[in-house]
TrEMBL record:
Active site: 348 (proton donor/acceptor)
Compositional bias ranges of the Polar residues kind: 61-76
Gene designation: LOC117640514
Originating species: Thrips palmi
Top-level taxon: Eukaryota
Protein's UniProt name: Zinc carboxypeptidase-like
Keywords: Carboxypeptidase, Hydrolase, Metal-binding, Metalloprotease, Protease, Signal, Zinc
Annotated region described as Disordered, given as residue ranges: 61-82
Length: 391
């Protein structure tokens, strides 16, 4: 018996994607998407430890990529590549990697721009699996600069979904490819870099105010912004919403990009990544009132949390932002939901061992694996609900 031989070799050696590690598996048949397996993966199962990609590419051993990381090590103990011990990549290597993906996966990956930061860095993301009439998924990470794991996780998600595509073996890859993905791993690059170079716990943008730097990017969106126009909010506060909605270049640019994706029509699912309270959240953050879609969003969130838990046993709480974590007026998910994207979620990723300190390669992998399970489940829910008559 002979197997057909592929004439197209992948440009670099990669680990084949495991076929059945996901709790929910999917196959596209006659244009429809159906669940084909409910086998639970083993924790740390196939594909987890064998994949050397992330740390080797982004955290120091790939000199071609990391030649962009030129900052001097400082007293925080950054290594020569500008990273803490661990695997969190700097902004420039991330962007270099995105550009490289677009070359390696021509036709499947485009680098896209959601404006420019206050200090002039481009807000880069990728579009995966572009298609004329495909529904769209949007993932943003790094709005809060110190939440490094969110940026690393978004990169891992990009890597994972492309890896599955190459191997063409993962049962969920059909579902993934049915959507056009827009992923922005680092939407606050100024703050992110500042959190490496100067202040590890920095959260805000780096715009220059009269007395303090920065605005909380997740309080600056133009829905329910700064209720009562509170003038008591101090500009040095960590959750300072800014002097006006969308006064920040980062939120303005990103929101314009989101608007261009036809929210509510083609843009069907939005996920904002934060860390690290282990929650799946949905509108509203500006009010304790239930949204019109409360029950449905709760149901999807709980299914996503169950899928996530099946990967490594991590338990996530599910509920509206305001009553589950705290009031957060002016957050991106509220704005996106109000703009017509019914399926709008924020995820507070798993709690690391040392919050805000190290982001190890194994932490990125474990977080990535379970987050991916949740997002694939959300995609399945959105796809199946979209195809229901009358919905
Ligand atoms: Zn956050």
């Amino acid at each position: 018996m002979s197997w057909p031989t592929s004439t197209a070799m992948p440009p670099t050696a990669r680990t084949p994607a495991p076929a059945d590690w996901m709790p929910n598996s999917f196959r596209v048949t006659n244009g429809g998407i159906s669940r084909v397996s409910t086998a639970a993966p083993a924790p740390g199962g196939p594909g987890a430890a064998a994949d050397p990609w992330f740390p080797s590419t982004l955290a120091g051993s790939d000199s071609a990529v990391n030649s962009n990381a030129v900052d001097e090590p400082n007293q925080q103990g950054l290594n020569a590549a500008g990273n803490l011990p661990g695997a969190a990549p700097r902004a420039a290597p991330i962007y270099a990697w995105l550009e490289r993906l677009a070359v390696l996966h021509a036709g499947l990956v485009d680098v896209v721009r959601g404006g420019r930061s206050f200090e002039g860095r481009p807000i880069k993301g990728v579009r995966l699996f572009p298609g004329k009439d495909k529904p769209r998924l949007f993932i943003e990470a790094g709005m809060h600069a110190q939440e490094w794991i969110t940026t690393s996780t978004a990169c891992w998600l990009i890597h994972r979904v492309l890896q599955a595509d190459e191997a063409d073996a993962a049962p969920w890859s059909g579902l993934a490819r049915a959507f056009e993905w827009h992923v922005f791993p680092n939407v606050n690059p100024d703050g992110y870099e500042y959190s490496f170079k100067t202040e590890r716990a920095w959260r805000k943008t780096r715009s220059k105010g009269l007395v303090c730097y920065g605005v909380d990017g997740n309080r600056n969106w133009a829905y329910g912004w700064n209720p009562g126009n509170s003038t008591t909010r101090h500009p040095c506060a960590r959750n300072f919403p800014g002097r006006a909605p969308f006064c920040e270049a980062e939120t303005r640019g990103l929101s314009e990009y989101v608007r261009s994706l036809a929210p509510g029509a083609r843009l069907r699912l939005y996920v904002s990544l934060h860390s690290s309270k282990q929650m799946i959240l949905f509108p509203w953050g500006c009010s304790r009132e239930h949204s019109a879609d409360h029950e449905e969003l709760m149901e999807i969130g709980q299914r996503a949390a169950s899928a996530l838990e099946r990967v490594h046993g991590t338990k996530f709480q599910v509920g509206p932002i305001a009553s589950t974590i705290y009031m957060a007026p002016g957050n991106s998910v509220d704005w996106v939901y109000a703009a017509g994207v019914k399926y709008a979620f924020a995820m507070e990723l798993r709690n690391p061992v040392k919050p805000e300190q190290y982001v190890s390669a194994s932490a990125i992998e474990a977080t990535g694996e379970e987050t991916f399970a949740a997002i694939i489940t959300m995609l399945e829910e959105v796809a199946s609900r979209s195809s229901r008559c009358g919905k």
